[in-house]
Amino acid sequence: MSTHVFARRHAEARAWHGVSEHWAWLVGGIVVAFLVPFLLADTLGLDRDLYYGLYAVSVLGLLLLWARDTGYDLVAALERRWMLAAGLGIAVAGLMTFLVLRTEDATSRPDGLELVGAVMWRGLMYGAIDGLLLSAFPILVVFAALAGSRLDQRLRGKVVIGIVAMLASLAMTAAYHAGYSDFRSEKLRKPVAGDLMWSVPTLVTLNPIGAPIAHAGMHTAAVMHSYETDTYLPPHR
Predict the structure, then answer these.
(1) Is residue 235 part of a domain?
(2) 152 domain residue, yes or no
C-alpha cells in the first residue's frame, strides 16, 4: 500500500470517527433531555426554581463537554452572523409572545421584586437554557457532524442537512417534554409545533444565540401574562 493511499485512508478514518462522535453526543443529549426532568422534576419533585438551576447546569455542561470533546469552536459560532441571529431571535420572540397572549388565559402573578426575580429566572434564564437544549445544541451538532460531507458541498445537500437538523431538534423537544408526566399526552403537540418557530433563528444562521433569545421571549411572556400556565413553565405541580 502506497504512503499516499495509507495517509488518505487514515484521514478518512479520523473524519469518520469525528462524525461518529457528534452523533453519539446527539443521542446522549436526547437521553439527558428526557432524564433531567423525569428524575429531578417528576420523580424527586424538586422545587421548581431549584430544578431550573440544576437543569441549567446540566445543559451548559452538556454543551461545553460536547464542544471540548469534538473540538467544536463555540466562540466562532457565537460570532457567526450574530446580528442576523439576534434580529431573528427578537422577531420570533415577538411572534411567540403574541401566541402566548392569544392562547393562554391571564392569571394572577406576584408583584415587585418577586415578579422581577420570576422574569429573570423563570423567563429569561430558563427560556434561554431551553432554547440552547431544544434547538441550538441539536442543530449545531447535526451541521458539525455533516460538515465537509458530500451533502455539504451543494445547496440541495445543505437543505437536506437543515431538514435533518430540524428533525433532531424536534426529537430533542419531544424527549425533553416527555420527561414531564403531564406532557405524555396530546399536550406534547404544542411544544413540538412551537419548536418549528423558535428554532428558525439558529437554523438559518447556525449561531446558538438565536433560539435562546426567541425562547426566552416566550417564557417571559408566560411569566408576565399567565404565571400559572400549565403549558410554558413546567413542571406544573
Answers:
(1) no
(2) yes
Within-domain flag for 230: no
Burial of 68 (0-12, 13-18, 19+ CB in 10 A): exposed
Containing domain of residue 46, as a range? 3-225
Count of structural domains, the chain? 1
pLDDT digits (tens, 9 = 90+) for 156-195: 888 999 999 999 999 999 999 999 998 998 899 999 999 9
pTM, two decimal places: 0.87
